[in-house]
Structures are given as C-alpha cells and as structure tokens.
C-alpha cells in the first residue's frame, strides 16, 4: 500500500508556502497497482477536487489528486483519500435485508421480494393517507440522471408534494442570494483570488473541517510571503478561528446586524469604488437606506483570541 500521508492524523499535510501560484502537491492512496487510471472528481464536499481513480479488474484500488487541476493542484482531503475503500468492504450489503414480522430479525431477501414489499406498502399508504404520506429527502451528491429518476418516482409515479433535500437548506438559499446580489447563482470570485489577496474574510465558514483542501490552500498562503490578514466570524472557537488575526464571535442570530454594521462603516467612510458602483451596481441607494440605522457600538463587542480556547496552541 502506498500513501502520501496518513490523512487521518495529518489532515492537511505539509505546508507549501507561496504567493501568486499555488504549488503542486500530489496526494495519493493506492492499495494495489492499478491497470489504468480514470479521470474523475471528488464530490464528497463542495470543493470539487480533480482526481484520478486507479482501477484493477473492475475494482477501485487507489486514488490520486490531479496536479494540473486548478482547484486542488493535486491535493486530496481525508474523504477523497479514504471514502472509496467502503466500495470493496467485505461487510458491504450485496442483497436486500427484510425484517421478519414475528422475530424482528433482518434476513436476506431477493430483490423481487424487497421491491414488491416496498411497492405494496407504498400503495397501502397512498390509499389510506393519500400520496402526501410519502416524502423524499435527498442529497446534494447525486448526478443529474439520478435526480431526474428520483423526480419521476416521487412526482410522476407516487404523486407526492413532499420532495426536499439538503440543497434547499444551504445551496439553494445561497444561490438565491447570489442571484439577488450579483445577478448570477454562481460565485463571482475564484479560488485563485486567495493566491494574491491581502485579506480573507470568512463568515460562518469553517474550511478547516468542512473543506479541508481549501483550508490547505489558505494555510499555505498564510505561511507564504506577504501574508494576508485572516478575519473569521463564527460563534465557535474552531480550528479555522485558531489561525485568525481577528475572531469575531457574534451572538447567535446577529450575523445580519453585524454585516449591516460593517456595510454602514464602509459606506460612511467611502471605502468603496464609487466609479465601479455607478457603472455596474443597481439598488445602491436602497442598500444605503437599509444600513443607515445600523450604527456599530464598539463597547461590549465580542472579539477574542481563539488561541485561548485551545490552551494557547498555535
């Protein structure tokens, strides 16, 4: 077995300090020498790291990051390096299990028996309570064809109105806000902005835990020349906050007042490009009216050194 690092104990790997262009560092975990490599991408968080999948006799036997990929430059997080191993796990279910009505024990069943039981019980629920008795809660990790099939089953087949997913709770709300603010549901910035930025402002974002490869990029930038200032807004003392120059810990539910107060200061002091706003922005007068009353009160503000929460570890 070959691996570039133990990503369980060493989550982010060694540092490659930089300014201007993030250096390559190929992370890999290979159990057997593959017959061929297949280009793919890791979809286990929203970072979208490019990766190659090693295949041998129809099985995944290893993964490696793609050095040429502009998102991760060859790096992979713990999920990307390890999650594939579950595919070949000896205790992975290969046949359906059905619970015995009398004993309550799970027993192996045929696919026909399992599907017939699902169909029969679904029909009973619809007949007794209408199709509104059935709900689907899906993930953000499916492919387009899978979403299409799921919609056919739920909407066209069962006729339920209850179809939801984690994308509505996070991605969809972000997309709606991006459309309102920037006219597009895609982020207007790029990860490459981190490579030269003079300041990084993370609001409720904990990449050290949630986007480990993005955090590698930030750590490498912080370790390089002309280090950017890092400001973290989060009520929690996270590993991300540990590296912050300023850690703001707002009371729960006060994130909008905090941001309105910051906007108030920026506009009041003229810390924005007036020509750019005049040429490209709409609704600016409304924004000024909205934040006009949000005057920050410096006394009693909660700005702390997150290192104290970790016993002084830096």
* Helix content estimate: 25-40%
Biggest sheet overview: 5 strands, antiparallel
What is the highest CATH level, the class of the largest domain? Alpha Beta
Shape: globular
Arrangement of strands in the largest sheet: 1-2-5-4-3
Q: Per CATH, which architecture of the largest domain? A: 3-Layer(aba) Sandwich
Task: List how many beta strands DSSP finds.
Answer: 13
Terminal Cα span: 33 Å
Strand content: 15-25%
Mean pLDDT: 90
Rg, Å, rounded:
25 Å
CATH topology type of the largest domain: Dimethylsulfoxide Reductase, domain 2
Succession of helices and strands: EEEEEHEEHEHEHHEHHEHEHHHE
Entry summary:
The protein is an alpha/beta fold. It is built from eleven helices and 13 strands. The chain is globular and about 70 Å long.
Describe it.
The chain is α/β, with parallel strands linked by helices. It has 11 helices and 13 strands. The protein has helices spanning 78-82, 111-129, 144-158, 166-169, 171-182, 207-210, 212-223, 239-242, 255-268, 274-280, 284-291, and strands at residues 2-3, 28-30, 36-41, 50-56, 59-65, 97-99, 106-108, 135-138, 162-165, 199-203, 229-233, 246-248, 303-304. A 5-stranded antiparallel sheet has the order 1-2-5-4-3.
Secondary-structure map:
Layout: E1 2-3, E2 28-30, E3 36-41, E4 50-56, E5 59-65, H1 78-82, E6 97-99, E7 106-108, H2 111-129, E8 135-138, H3 144-158, E9 162-165, H4 166-169, H5 171-182, E10 199-203, H6 207-210, H7 212-223, E11 229-233, H8 239-242, E12 246-248, H9 255-268, H10 274-280, H11 284-291, E13 303-304
Parallel strand pairs: 8-9, 10-11, 11-12
Antiparallel strand pairs: 1-2, 2-5, 3-4, 4-5, 6-7, 12-13
């Amino acid at each position: 077995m070959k691996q570039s690092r133990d990503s369980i104990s060493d989550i982010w790997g060694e540092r490659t300090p930089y300014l201007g262009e993030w250096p390559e560092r190929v992370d890999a975990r290979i159990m057997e020498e593959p017959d061929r490599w297949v280009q793919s991408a890791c979809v286990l968080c929203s970072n979208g790291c490019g990766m190659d999948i090693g295949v041998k006799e129809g099985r995944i036997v290893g993964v490696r990051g793609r050095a040429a990929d502009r998102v991760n430059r060859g790096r992979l997080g713990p999920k990307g390096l390890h999650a594939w191993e579950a595919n070949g796990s000896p205790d992975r279910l290969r046949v359906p299990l059905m619970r015995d009505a009398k004993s309550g024990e799970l027993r192996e069943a045929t696919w026909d028996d399992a599907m017939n039981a699902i169909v029969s019980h679904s029909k009973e629920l619809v007949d007794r309570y209408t199709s509104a008795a059935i709900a689907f809660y899906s993930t953000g990790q499916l492919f387009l064809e899978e979403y299409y099939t799921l919609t056919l089953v739920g909407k066209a087949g069962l006729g339920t109105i209850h179809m939801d997913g984690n994308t509505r709770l996070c991605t969809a709300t972000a997309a709606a806000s991006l459309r309102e603010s920037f006219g597009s549901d895609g982020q207007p910035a790029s990860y490459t902005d981190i490579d030269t930025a003079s300041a990084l402002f993370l609001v409720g974002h904990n990449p050290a835990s949630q986007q480990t490869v993005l955090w590698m990029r930030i750590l490498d930038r912080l370790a390089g020349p002309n280090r950017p200032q890092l400001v973290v807004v989060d009520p929690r003392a996270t590993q991300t906050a540990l590296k912050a120059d300023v850690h703001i810990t707002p009371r729960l539910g006060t994130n909008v007042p905090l941001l309105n107060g910051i906007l108030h200061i920026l506009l009041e002091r003229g810390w924005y490009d007036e020509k750019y706003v005049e040429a490209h922005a709409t609704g600016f007068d409304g924004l000024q009216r909205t934040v006009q009353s949000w005057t920050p009160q410096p006394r009693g503000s909660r700005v702390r050194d997150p290192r104290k929460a970790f016993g002084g570890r830096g």
